[in-house]
Design brief:
There is one protein chain. By secondary structure, the protein is mainly α. It has 2 domains: 67 residues, Homeodomain-like (Arc Repressor Mutant, subunit A), CATH 1.10.10; 140 residues, Tetracycline Repressor, domain 2, CATH 1.10.357. 60% of the residues lie in helices and 0% in strands. The chain has 10 helices and no strands. Helix 5 packs antiparallel against helix 6 and helix 8 packs across helix 9. It is elongated and about 60 Å long. The N terminus and C terminus are likely disordered.
Length: 263
């Protein structure tokens, strides 16, 4: 069954249908409970779509995993299509929020891109909405009405950060842009493919670090690779911030995490 365009649905945590039914006396408490139930259903849907695939996941299993009745599920989602769309929207929210927070912390575009690939490796294990979003997109490719293509959204973030890095002068001036973009896009998509083989997370993290160790000397001016952290945030020296001179001591700064401020 094709995923229908659910543009009428609000983002996760803001369901319009639910809000309309929970107004009046005690409406705020009812609305809070309803939104908690919706979040539980989205999480359960992500788990089941990730484990079993879109076609094999059933609404009964999803309701049971969430600890609610099928009636409660249908109150929020009229079909498996709508729930799958909500799961993918949740994945998009997590991705966009991570990139926004990394950029707000002062990291350069290229360092943000490196950190975002490590974020993906981690959240393919920790946050079911991420692998579920990739799987739904793959299994429903070509079906009419598919509203969200998570692969395209992931690549849009990757290529957008790479363009920002180019415009900020972080990349080699003599580099062939189309080839650079294709290489980085292929490497970033490979993270999800490797995770899908069941590769242990520690090994996946090591592979991502290795990829950047190979790519950086090809991407940035000679000697500039030392200004970037290629490993998981917190595992090696802090990278240079935007506007900081190359070689400036970094000991005064705490090592940043995926998101949040850099001291």
């Amino acid at each position: 069954m094709a995923l229908r365009d659910t543009r009428h649905a609000a983002a996760i945590g803001s369901p319009g249908r639910t809000r309309a039914r929970t107004t009046g006396r005690g409406g705020s408490a009812m609305q809070d409970r309803s939104e908690r139930t919706r979040r539980k259903l989205v999480h359960a849907g992500a788990e089941m779509f990730h484990r079993n695939g879109y076609a094999n996941a059933t609404l009964g299993e999803i309701a049971a995993f969430a600890g609610v009745t099928k009636g409660a599920l249908y109150f929020h989602f009229a079909s498996k299509d709508e729930l799958a769309e909500a799961v993918q929207r949740r994945g998009c929210e997590l991705l966009h929020e991570s990139v926004r927070e990394l950029r707000a912390s002062g990291l350069s575009p290229l360092q943000t891109l490196i950190n975002t690939t490590h974020w993906l490796a981690l959240n393919l294990r920790e946050e079911p909405a991420i692998p579920a979003s990739f799987r739904i997109t793959k299994e429903c490719a070509g079906l009419p009405g598919l509203a969200t293509d998570f692969h395209r959204i992931w690549l849009a973030e990757v290529c957008g950060l790479l363009r920002q890095a180019r415009d900020a002068g972080e990349l080699r001036a003599e580099g062939r842009w189309e080839s650079i973009e294709s290489l980085v896009a292929a490497a970033s998509c490979g993270i999800e493919s490797l995770a899908g083989t069941g590769m242990p997370y520690a090994e996946l993290q090591r592979r991502v670090t290795g990829v950047w160790s190979l790519l950086l000397p090809c991407l940035v001016p000679e000697g500039a690779e030392k200004n970037f952290r290629v490993g998981m945030p917190g595992t090696d020296p802090a990278p240079r911030l935007v506007g900081e001179a190359p070689g400036e001591p970094t000991a005064r700064r705490t090592r940043p995490v995926f998101s949040g401020s850099t001291a």
